[in-house]
Specification:
single chain, 210 residues, 5-stranded mixed β-sheet, 40% helix
Length: 210
């Protein structure tokens, strides 16, 4: 299927999604059981420029587990997902690739701080500010604080970065020290350059682990 097969014509895009999938299903010949044949989990960004099967030729359906979020940052949910990938017998992945990239949208998010906060407040107000869930969320994101303090809180929550190599080192350390991460699982920290298509090795934990 080419990009021409999926060319959204409307805002809802539903017809385009269904039609594109129909074309894919017509020639689908890879039914398979649950598993990750290469025994690798990849933690990376949700950025649309990161297509793992293109970046790593030879990776195919059923080869790796891919966990994505904004920035590819290590969070409690990433740790939860990795725990499942490593401990469920049908999956049993035995290595982690932590992959950040250049020109990340997580940094762009902080440039639009006031716009994002305004939109958050608008959406939360539709639920009613008296509900405990809304109050908890507003507190966690610092929406009730003065602007200069709120930016620091949002920075801590969103964890943007200017230097992807530094963010890789930080997240490898966080993952290495997560209680549910087995000490014998190697973690490979890398940065993908969206301008060149190359992946650059930053560090491996434990050091020297193949």
């Amino acid at each position: 299927m080419t990009t021409a097969d999926f060319a959204p014509r409307s805002l809802n895009m539903l017809d385009d999604i269904i039609n594109a999938n129909s074309k894919y299903a017509e020639s689908f010949d890879k039914p398979m059981t649950l598993g990750a044949k290469k025994k690798l989990s990849i933690v990376t960004c949700m950025d649309s420029r990161l297509l793992i099967d293109k970046m790593l030729p030879g990776v195919d359906i059923g080869d790796v587990e891919i966990i994505r979020n904004a920035g590819g940052r290590v969070t409690m949910d990433v740790v939860r997902s990795l725990f499942v990938a490593q401990e469920v017998p049908e999956l049993a992945t035995r290595a982690v690739l932590l992959l950040h990239h250049t020109d990340c949208g997580a940094m762009a998010a902080m440039r639009h701080h006031d716009q994002l906060v305004g939109r958050m407040r608008q959406l939360l107000s539709e639920w009613g500010v008296t509900t405990w869930a809304v109050q908890a969320l507003a507190s966690a994101w610092g929406l009730l604080l003065p602007r200069f303090v709120r930016k620091k809180v949002l920075n801590a929550v969103m964890r943007p970065f200017a230097d992807p190599a530094a963010s890789v080192r930080e997240d490898v350390w966080l993952l290495r020290n997560a209680p549910l991460m087995p000490k014998d699982i190697p973690i490979y920290g890398m940065v993908y350059d969206v301008q060149t298509g190359r992946m650059h090795h930053v560090l491996t934990s434990p050091a020297g682990k193949a």
